Amino acid sequence: MGKKAVVLLSGGLDSATVLAISREEGFENHCLSFSYGQRHSVELVSAAKVAASLGAVEHRVVDIDLRAFGGSALTADIDVPKNNDGTFDGSNIPVTYVPARNIIFLSFALGMAEVIGAGDVFIGANAVDYSGYPDCRPEFIDAFAKMAAVGTKAGVEGRAVRFNAPIISLSKADIIRRGVRLGVDYSLTHSCYDPDSEGLSCGGCDSCLLRKKGFLDAGVPDPTRYV
Question: What domain range is 210 assigned to?
Answer without folding.
Answer: 3-218
